[in-house]
Amino acid sequence: MYSGQVKKVLISENDIQSKIKEIAAEINKEYAGKQPILIGILKGAFVFLADLSRELTVPHSVDFMDVSSYGEDVKTSGIVKIEKDIDRSVAGEDVILVDDIIDTGLTMTYISDYLQNHKPASVRICSLLSKPSRRVVEVKSDFLGFEIPDEFVIGYGLGHKGLYRNLKYIAILDEKYY
Ligand code: IMP
Ligand code: MG
Question: Which parts of the chain have pLDDT scores under 70?
Answer without folding.
Answer: 70-78
